[in-house]
Amino acid sequence: MEVIIVKDYEEASQKACEIMLNVVKNNPTANLGLATGSTPIRLYELMREDHKKNGTSYKDIKSFNLDEYFGLDQSHPQSYHYFMCHNLFNELDIDMNNVHVPKGNGNIDEECKAYNQLLEDNPIDIQLLGIGSNGHIGFNEPGTPFDSVTHKVDLKQSTIEDNARLFFNGKIEDVPTQAVSMGIANIMKAKKVLLIASGEGKAKAIQATVEGPKTTDVPASALQDHPDCILVVDEAAASLLKNK
Ligand code: GLP
């Protein structure tokens, strides 16, 4: 694990953008694993700005998102599909046929099987991750086995509360209690992993991820075994690290 500590959210987003663009520019047919949540919003804005200004093209790029809420249609403003379109895809030249977000409705077992097959057929070149305050990656909550693949999950109460704080207009009762998520084994198969963490609310999770034991209690600690994993962490999120 390589940990890059930067000053603040803006610097973390700039650094992450540099790493993402490097992959896209060196491989115009790259498969990008993408994430949602508040953390990558500025990174996506920077990618849109770069596309506009420098013409970096996504026309042969494929994208694969980590997760989706269960029970929300793609057109629901809080769905991750909607989030991705509005924060990134709508302003890039990406072919929407190359965009993949797990479906949160329909026959979930079939959807999960199909998504796993899709990931098998399209190995991810770079997987972007945020981290939950409880150490979750994607929607792989504490206790998820490291060999898990795309599956339906029950969200922890703390995740529902975290996500209501920033989305769903603060209404906890509107946050779905279940989701569909790539598993930890899917994430570990990516050639490169880029995790961004910002703010002191992530400090405990980052300390446990980097310096704690590898344990399913902290899903992100699985990344200790990844051969090419970069954590871009701002000073607040790095504040509990003992070895800086
Ligand atoms: C959600 C997403 C995760 C994300 C996490 C952190 O639970 N499923 O992929 O990493 O939120 O969100 P935020 O970046 O808003 O702190």
Largest sheet: 7 strands, parallel
Widest β-sheet, arrangement of strands: 1-10-9-6-2-3-5
Q: Indicate the structural class.
A: alpha/beta
Distance between the termini: 13 Å
Low-pLDDT windows of residues: none
Shape: globular
Q: What is the typical, i.e. mean, pLDDT?
A: 97
What is the β-strand count? Answer: 10
Radius of gyration: 17 Å
In N-to-C order, the SSE pattern is EHEHEEHEHEEHEHEHE
Total helix count?
7
The small molecules bound here are: 2-amino-2-deoxy-6-O-phosphono-alpha-D-glucopyranose
* Helix share, percent: 25-40%
Strand content: 15-25%
Q: Can you describe what's shown?
A:
The longest helix is centred in the first third of the chain and has 18 residues, at about 10-25. The protein is built from seven helices and ten strands. β2 (about 30-35), α2 and β3 (about 60-65) form a beta-alpha-beta unit. It has about 240 residues and is α/β, with parallel strands linked by helices. 2-amino-2-deoxy-6-O-phosphono-alpha-D-glucopyranose (GLP) binds next to α5.
